[in-house]
Amino acid sequence: MTSPAPEPKKTTTSRRRFLAGAGATSAAIGGGYLLTRDERWPATSDDPKAAPAKTSPTSAAAQTPLADVPEGRTLVVIDLAGGNDGLATLEPYESGRLRSLRENVMHDPEELVMLDDEMALNPSLAGLNEIGLAVIEGVGTTDGDMSHFEMANRWAYGMASSDDGFSSGFFGRLCDQLDVGAPLTGLAIGGRGGYAKALLAEKAVTAGLSDIDAGWYFRDEGEWFQQYRASVLAMAASTGGSPLLANARIGAARAVEFADMLGGISADGDEKAEAEEKERRDAYPSTGLGEQLAAAAGLLRAGTGIRVLHLTHGGFDTHDDQPGTHNYLMMELSEALVAFRNDLADAGLDGSTLIATTSEFGRRPRSSGSGTDHGNASVALLSGPVVPGRHGESPSLSKLDADDNLAPTVGMGDYYATLASWFGVDATTVLEGTNTALDGVFNA
Questions:
Q1: Bridging pattern class, strands 113-114 and 119-121
Q2: Which of 77, 167, 78 has the alpha carbon at shortest distance from 422?
Q3: CA-CA distance, 251 to 240, in Å (whole number)?
Q4: How far apart are CA 33 and CA 29, in angstroms?
Q5: DSSP SS3 for 89
Q6: pLDDT at residue 7, as a whole number
Q7: Which one is the CATH code of 22-429: 1.10.287, 3.40.630, 3.40.50, 3.40.720?
Q8: Which pLDDT score, from 0 to 100, does residue 161 have?
Q9: Cβ distance 308 to 77 under 8 Å?
Q10: Between these two residues, 63 and 125, which has the higher pLDDT value?
Q11: Where are the alpha helices (DSSP H) in 5-95?
Q12: Which of 26, 359, 23 lies closest to 185 in space, CA to CA?
């Protein structure tokens, strides 16, 4: 259980290191991506020649946010890109069967962090486990695929199979449910140029950002930059043209609105405030994920209205040298999340921020040389207001699927339904088919 967080302190933010407009501004203008209202989702237009908006399989329900969505809750998603090995994250303690399959890539039992008399955590997760970690076992799809591209696509769109046919991302559909008109409802930081298909939405404004310090030109007070800002505002205020141009105008207007919001709470010129911001950021490890989470915490502290943040922690395609590589990646994850949770607790936000991981697939039970090949079921990690320990059902090592991989016990849809339930969102509005949220995962 997480101890009660202290009262939030007054937020002060430095524009030099913090996003201060970079998020939405560069997303709309060129430093990143505006992920909503593209050519597949034309905005409503007064132009009688404009094409009608296309809809997703769940769009009728997605157009109206639910009245009982808890206020102020945020979801931070960390994609463990490359295929995280669930058997090296949550290891069956003293499993003779597993040792016979992968003796050369297993931990020494004495190094493991025991959860109970059956399962133990990767030793690099000790710090995160101390402050509260929930593990969802057996997460995957029954119709798995060994392709990074295919499975990353399915997880992005929330498709149990390649035939589901969604055109909006799962977290984008969640943003549609949570949208109350904030400049941004969802933001991706890092990843492939900041582009996150998972945040493609129908009506909520979502964006992607590769460089957390991009967009500085909107903050510069030089004459040229101010003229550039004025030209963007003029473009946003123009009328006519195609629905696609109308979408661009909406994106530009929201971008400047977001920049102004952050500019209003910035601390440039305030030496004390800037020193406090530097101290806050220096508490994070100097890693890519550490920088992403420091920026994410700054956004949440600023009260920007963002409800879903999507981050990327890559390198999990461990075909070779898995023990050293995977342990290091787990250490980076643990250290960055401990700093993030401490930062949130200092601002009184720890109890309202859920952290969840995704990954395109797990790894094979049988090792291949010094690593493991693409598999199926893995584990998902949750931190924040969660009930620590194991959830779901452990996949059987004696009943592998047709490809000799772990068969999933918790479907992708069930896991995503669990995340949707954190917001009080009905899974039928964001997913197809029958999906059941896991009970007893959250402590609030």
A1: antiparallel
A2: 77
A3: 15
A4: 8
A5: helix
A6: 35
A7: 3.40.720
A8: 77
A9: yes
A10: 125
A11: 22-29, 59-62, 86-89
A12: 23
